[in-house]
Amino acid sequence: xxxxxxxxxxxxxxxxxxxxxxxxxxxxxxxxxxxxxxxxxxxxxxxxxxxxxxxxxxxxxxxxxxxxxxxxxxxxxxxxxxxxxxxxxxxxxxxxxxxxxxxxxxxxxxxxxxxxxxxxxxxxxxxxxxxxxxxxxxxxxxxxxxxxxxxxxxxxxxxxxxxxxxxxxxxxxxxxxxxxxxxxxxxxxxxxxxxxxxxxxxxxxxxxxxxxxxxxxxxxxxxxx
Length: 225
Prior knowledge:
Residues 3-116 form the Response regulatory domain. Residues 125-224 bind DNA. This protein is of the alpha/beta class. It is built from eight helices and twelve strands. It has two domains: 3-118, Response regulator (Rossmann fold); 127-222, Winged helix-like DNA-binding domain superfamily/Winged helix DNA-binding domain (Arc Repressor Mutant, subunit A, Orthogonal Bundle). α6 (153-164) packs across α7 and α6 packs across α8 (190-201). β4, α4 and β5 (97-101) form a beta-alpha-beta unit. The chain has helices spanning 11-23, 34-42, 60-70, 84-92, 105-118, 153-164, 172-180, 190-201, and strands at 3-7, 27-31, 48-52, 75-80, 97-101, 127-130, 133-136, 141-144, 147-148, 170-171, 212-215, 219-222. It has a five-stranded parallel beta sheet, with helices on both faces.
């Protein structure tokens, strides 16, 4: 049974979501402020965290930053509808996905299952190598020039998707479907932000370029040199 931590100051909403999630087979705990939420998230008992960005006191963004300093647990943000700034900042801080509030509980379940599925080690024992990048899917380990990288589950899956098609351009639409588990919507910058985060964790090619190249208007490709 997957364990989900809800961090939201709206206790009534938490009770409603917890009841729905438990009926779908999740084990749910709740925290109603950022400080308690961070403490519970870092205790390591949750398989995924649902975090409201608009928390009073310690904000959801600050809570996310503190979680990401010590943990790669999958985090799904709840954001105000139409608030692109908080959404982008949250993704830049390492959130795996987001939903605007008020959210449909059925969509929340679908997004949670997708996030948890992406965080589950694969059965394949193969090792992928593209230039300085090495990926071991079964162990969810990614290395650059022999040094292990701390990647979120979304970043690992993004790198794996690009590595499996190294040298080819992978469209943003395909990345959204394969990595985020949902179609790319108009004005959605999630893919771009995740690519930007991943680029910062990778090294550079000998000529100073990023190994993830942008093909304007189409998508991205991973190159060895």
